[in-house]
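User: Structure tokens for this complex, please. No commentary.
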Amino acid sequence: MSVSKPLYIGTSKSIAARMLGGEMMIMSMRDSTFFTLNEVASAIWRAADGSTPLSDIVSGTICREFNVEFETAYRDAGELVQRLAEHGIVVLSDHPITAGPESSNAQ
Amino acid sequence: MSLVEQMNARALELGVPLSVQLDVTYRCNERCIHCYLDHDDHGEMTTAEICDVLDQIADAGVFFLTLSGGEVLVRRDFFAILEHARSHLFNVKVKTNGLLITETAVRRLTELAVNDIQISVYSHRPETHDAITKVPGSFARTLKGIRLLTAQGIKVTIANILMRQNMSDYDGVHDLAVQLGAHYTVDPTITPMMDGGRSVLQYRIPGSELEKVFRESKLVGNVEEFCAPPPPPGDDVMDGYPCSAGHTACYISPYGDVFPCVQFPLPSGNVRHERFLEIWRNSPQLKEVRSIRARDLTTCSGCGHVGSCTRCPGLAYLEGNMRGPSSADCEKSFRRTGLPSAAMLGVSAVQPSASSLVQIQLLSQ
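Assistant:
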């Protein structure tokens, strides 16, 4: 995945989510799809504030906390957020996302 | 194992209450003949108290939250409660009779992304439904509410409780659900009153009708598989626990009382006097419920149905012994497979301990 264009991620309000034993359980209220996110994916989801580009989340949080290379982590993170976006769990934009009816700040 | 089953197993291992049913009121605008509740208000929790409980159960790890009653929409602060619940990202199911579902209510339910609205429909025949709810016109109003909800794409589940008055109507209600774009669930169990009163049990459907229900592929799927004799129980079954009540789930009444389940009225604490997590972790009553394994059951441990029975420990408790059989479930196992249960045959496997005979316990304040 290219990092030439910034990608912003906002979390949707149309979800249910809770941490359970270090993993994040997330259910899309749109299509009832259920996901569990591992520790790394949970960290990305928690950092998705709509105003921090994915590349900064990966370099600032993931690479630092989990000791992984940026290129690999960024590619995996990109695939994850695309998949979550398909189920309405996150919202993607090439501009910062302001808090609106579709985004949530809850953790 | 599905993700939800994995999640349940993990919650059990960690001692996390994954599911809570919170009844926000016992008041109701219907007077259903089979209802197990006293509809007077004996001091419901305030909005602030309920929001505090929601904060506490979110911290405790609850993911599935059912808001029920009574009729939830008779509380004028219901949407404030729901909004607070959704701010914690609970997966919320709302149980209602649908009478007060308006376009405004639907708009709020849509905005707040409720996962499921469960609505009771007793019959596809208006006169039968209204006779059960004792509210003339309730059938038409409930259906109007369902149509408003499904038109906005909200998931609706029609709950069809069967009793003598409507025991042949499941086919009609099932078809009605399909026509309305709603899911359908059937329950042939009438439960005793919360205070133990058994007068409503007169409405339970006779066993011969249960046999018919259990042989409807529309309701049970593969009939041959559903009605097959149970396999001999292994150690995994005998070491297993009866249901999620008190293990990964519990119930909170409008007065703050905590019970293992809405059908298991064993007082285990009150959130007005103690923190929820304190009750969940340390209540002697919940600890006792958690200690019970299938091999500890007084009669059921020696029953061939032990691994496949729907035995409800709450119904057993209401019959006098939480380790004993639940006669309604014995009847179901018998009508499903044709094989009588150990309790029906008068077999007792384990002698109950003295403590298990003490079923009604008052909580110290």
